[in-house]
Amino acid sequence: MRSQRLVSCMLLLQGTRRLTARALAASLEVSVRTVYRDVEALSESGVPIHMERGANGGIVLADDYRRALAQFTSDELQALFTAAAGPMTDLGIISPSRALQKLAGALPAPQRRAAEANRDRLLLDHNRWGRGAQPTAVLHRLRAAVAQERRVRLEYRDRGGALTSRIVDPLGLVAKAGVWYVVTNEPGKGFRTFRAQRIIDVEETSEHFARPADFNLEEHWNASVASIEARPSGGYEVVLRVKLESLATLTAFWDFSLLEEEVDAATLRVAFPNRDVAVAQILALGGALRIVEPDELNAAIVAYAREVLERYAPALASGGALASGGKG
Questions:
Q1: What is the DSSP annotation of 165-189?
Q2: DSSP conformation letters of 251-301
Q3: Claim to verify: residue 249 and residue 221 sit in the same structural domain
Q4: Among 199, 224, 234, 298, which is most exposed with the fewest C-beta within 10 angstroms?
């Protein structure tokens, strides 16, 4: 977008007082003619920017406009560089490498060297273990629909595996522990929150919606979280140690809290609807997890396995005997 490009142009000139139009064009990935138009637009809007002719000429930004970034402390610069890659990347709003390149280019040389050195010493990973791939295409379409206040059709698979199609008004996107949710208003049914990873498809409709005048995304989300956390547990809670490769499968469908992280596994408290569902899910994942508690679940798993053996082992033995007899 042009507005973003104009800001980038000023950031680049803050680091180096004078740049040629060709150098700016290369940094901004536009033509030299576009740079000249941008300089003219900035000047007309009141930014003290001008072009100087001659061998040492170029595009110049007044000194007063170049002092802002020089006022950052080293700690503030480190925070900016380490926090650049986060949920905004999932939405396609920023490219961390390009954003940091622009910021570094705008800094005076000593601060630029210090900031780049700090990037190798502190890393923030915003994602929990086994988060799974984020549906970036779905998130991009949802972000556009939220911004344009356009009604959408969601194809959604719930935790039970049922696929539904519904028309909703997307009011906002929320990232919690690296997992994205869309808060919606479903006409006639009220507010609903959907986990983005369970959305199969998003289709914009031709209808625009009126955003509720009293709706505040942060207040709504905080109230929803408080309500969920205060809700008495009526299900069956299990503590499991799960291998990382199976985390996404397990956490995509069941509410959980992370208790401990390791290099190759994580310990979770998982809320299943009942013990039978817990047994079925644990058997499905097999050796990918281990039950930490409750102890009685281990007994239930063993009892279930014995029942299966008692039911199917005789048929297997009979089939084996017949097969052996046939060979004789």
A1: EEEEEEEEEEEETTEEEEEEEETTT
A2: HTTSEEEEEEE-SSEEEEEEEESSHHHHHHHHHHHGGGEEEEE-HHHHHHH
A3: no
A4: 234
**pLDDT for position 135:** 79
Which strand ranges, in their side-by-side order, compose the sheet holding 49-52?
18-19, 58-61, 49-52
Do 185 and 269 share a domain, yes or no?
Answer: no
pTM of the predicted protein model:
0.52
DSSP string, 75-143: HHHHHHHHTSSSHHHHTTS--HHHHHHHHHHTS-HHHHHHHHHHTTT-----SPTT-----HHHHHHHH
Express each pLDDT in 280-312 by its tens digit: 888 888 888 899 998 889 888 888 888 888 888
Tell me 245's DSSP state: G
Report the CATH number that the domain containing residue 276 is assigned in CATH.
Answer: 3.30.70
CB contact at 8 A, 192 and 206: no
- Give the phi and the psi of residue 105 in degrees, each rounded to 5: -65, -20
Question: What average pLDDT is seen over the chain?
Answer: 78
Residue 156 lies in a domain: yes
Q: Which tokens go with 151? A: 């009604």
pLDDT tens for 207-254 read 999 999 899 999 999 998 887 766 655 678 899 999 988 887 787 778
Give the integer Cα–Cα distance in Å for 260 and 251. 15
